[in-house]
Write a structure and sequence with these properties.
Elements (H helix, E strand, L loop, with lengths): L3 E3 L5 H11 L3 H9 L5 H8 L15 H13 L3 E5 L4 H15 L4 E5 L12 H9 L4 E5 L6 H9 L3 E5 L13 E3 L15 H18 L15 H10 L6 H15 L4 H9 L9 H18 L3 H7 L4 H35 L9 E5 L7 H12 L3 E5 L4 E7 L6 H6 L5 E6 L3 E7 L3 H15 L8 E3 L2 E2 L7 H8 L13 E14 L3 E7 L6 E6 L11 E11 L7 E5 L3
Helix pairs in contact: 1-2, 4-8, 5-8, 5-9, 5-13, 6-7, 8-9, 9-10, 9-12, 11-14, 12-14, 13-14, 14-15
Length: 567
């Protein structure tokens, strides 16, 4: 399928002004301009952010009520239960809040449900469990915004519930003691981009102040909020929320915190995934650390991760990190088999791709990895994908979307067919009665036809700048690194190189091509790598257009790596 390249020429006057003020490469000035940064002050803050512009936590709706209630519970030694989610966002949020409240010797416990046996979020059996433990207050993290029945049951048991979440609310909000979710229609905090761990972090910010105002820190040492930024960063990057504004400020500081090697759990995971702690970046978190945390919830139980992240003993975290590594390998194999199964089905029945939508189910598929499989298929076939495990009366699964198609809104239009659903614009979970499965694709396809046009299904690659080989220097790479961390809404720049000739090339590792590229003048050359080629027999010797990313060589100082993207 042909890939559409998009490129917007930045305002020449803005670029010149930023270049002069910052003394930066014109490519960097152009990249900043494309982010809407037009003044030297904005640019300096983006490149070197500090805490001076962080939002006030009390701008979040119900924050004041929540922190006062938690303060009362701490003072009166009430039993507090932290209830989290089973993904990287949820376990980092659970660990963070548990560590903070442990400092003041709160009567505290935490709980993360089993993904397949219990399902997502706070449910009626969890209230029964809390009541049996004489819990007085439940604080949810990264979940709860749709737990209406559970909140009502808690009220009957005289248990207060404070919900902290970032998922899309339903038309009504649970009648909890307090609900902190920046996506509520009447929340004016402008923090919709926070992950669950971000909302939990702002709760901690509010609690620290209330504890200070009420003399709690006269009894216990007051913590620095920076102590929790490693967890904030892993959960935020792992949940693929926008890395903008407060998220960017805190993740920049969080990455510095992680590289200090102060949390044994992260050091152990970096070692097992062969990541250099001194050079760890957002890519390492996305592709090495987060998958290992998520693997526990998918293959075993996510409680492993909360215990791991809060463990102070390096020897113990080494053992757990090795276990997480093994679980991740198992997850990869399971996922690979599901994707291969689906690709065989598509090859045998192309009608599966009709209506630019894939909806499939199977009794054998492991429900816990269907989200990852759906992501791979959505990227390849450039369409939304819904996959479900149908072994029980109620099938459970995941869906992933593409481009600007809001899958959560699309699911909302079929709620009469769904038992439950929830999530974000690009990813959601759902459950469907088995007898309704055959009706699901036609219903979803009907809504997609109403809200989407042809362009919504076109694979699009945004080009950030056109560069020449002569532009590619270690100095440019160093300045590009100042734009990190890369992620949602702050993607790694993709550059376009035109009319490139291959001076020489070799295949390494069986499927990777290492090339020396030269321009038409043959005056300049650069080394390039193209990973995971599907065919190594018919290799081009000339590229009219080449999409690349630029990186510093981690193994050779002052060397640049040109990484070829899809062509």
């Amino acid at each position: 399928m042909e890939i559409k390249l998009t490129y917007t020429t930045p305002d020449r006057h803005v670029v010149q002004r930023l270049q002069k003020a910052l003394g930066c490469h014109p490519v960097i000035a152009g990249l900043l301009s494309e982010k809407g940064i037009t003044t030297a002050d904005e640019a300096r803050f983006f490149l070197n952010p500090d805490y001076s512009r962080l939002s006030n936590p009390f701008e979040l709706k119900d924050m004041g009520k929540a922190v006062e209630r938690i303060h009362t519970a701490v003072r009166n030694k009430e039993k507090i239960l932290i209830f989290g989610d089973f993904d990287a966002d949820g376990v980092t949020a659970t660990a963070m809040l548990y560590q903070f409240l442990s400092l003041v010797e709160a009567d505290l416990s935490w709980y993360v449900p089993h993904r397949t046996k219990e399902g997502y979020s706070l449910q009626l059996p969890h209230i029964e469990m809390a009541a049996s433990l004489a819990v007085d207050l439940i604080i949810t993290v990264d979940c709860g915004i749709r737990s209406h029945e559970a909140v009502q049951a808690a009220a009957r048991e005289d248990i207060d519930v404070i919900i902290t979440d970032h998922h899309e609310p339903d038309t009504t909000i649970p009648k909890a003691f307090a609900v902190i979710n920046p996506k509520q229609a009447d929340c004016k905090a402008c923090l919709e981009y926070l992950a669950g761990v971000g909302v939990a972090f702002y709760l901690i910010m509010g609690l620290r102040k209330v504890f200070r105002d009420n003399g709690i820190w006269e009894q216990y040492p007051e913590p620095q909020l920076s102590e929790y930024l490693d967890l904030f960063t892993i959960g935020t990057i792992g949940d693929m929320v926008p890395l903008v504004q407060d998220n960017r400020i805190l993740c920049v500081a969080g990455l510095k915190r992680i590289r200090m090697g102060l949390r044994p759990a992260i050091v152990s995971m970096a070692r097992t995934s062969r990541v250099d702690m001194d050079k760890l970046d957002s890519d390492d978190i996305s592709f090495k650390i987060v998958p290992r945390l998520n693997a526990a919830g998918r293959i075993s139980h996510a409680r492993i991760c909360v215990s791991h992240l809060t463990c102070p003993a390096p020897a113990q975290t080494e053992t757990t990190a090795a276990l997480l590594d093994e679980l991740n390998r198992k997850r990869q194999l399971i996922e690979k088999k599901i994707v291969e199964d689906i690709e065989l089905r598509i090859a045998g029945d192309p009608s599966i791709l009709e209506n630019r939508l894939i909806v499939l189910w199977d009794k054998k598929w492991e429900a816990s990895v269907l989200g990852i499989a759906a992501s791979r298929l959505a990227r390849k076939h450039v369409c939304p994908v819904v996959l479900l495990n149908s072994k029980d009366e109620i099938a459970k699964g995941s869906c992933r979307s593409i481009n600007q198609i809001n899958i959560h809104e699309v699911l909302s239009g079929t709620r009469d067919l769904l038992e439950t659903f929830g999530g974000h614009a690009m990813a959601a979970g759902l459950s469907v009665r088995r007898e309704n499965l055959a009706r699901l694709k036609p219903a979803l396809a009907h809504i997609l036809a109403l809200v989407c046009t042809e362009k919504d299904f076109k694979p699009v690659r945004k080009i950030d700048a056109v560069i020449e080989i002569a532009d590619i220097t270690p100095e440019l790479i160093s300045q590009i690194d100042m734009l990190r961390p890369f992620g949602t809404d702050n993607p790694e720049p993709v550059f376009l190189m035109e009319n490139m000739w291959v001076a020489s090339s070799i295949i390494i590792g069986g499927c990777h091509r290492k090339m020396t590229l030269k321009d038409q003048s043959e005056e300049h050359q650069v080394e390039a790598l193209h990973f995971n080629l599907s065919d190594t027999t018919c290799l081009p010797e000339f590229f009219p257009k080449l999409m690349v990313k630029l990186k510093a060589d981690r193994f050779k100082q002052n060397r640049v790596q040109v990484i070829v993207q899809d062509m």
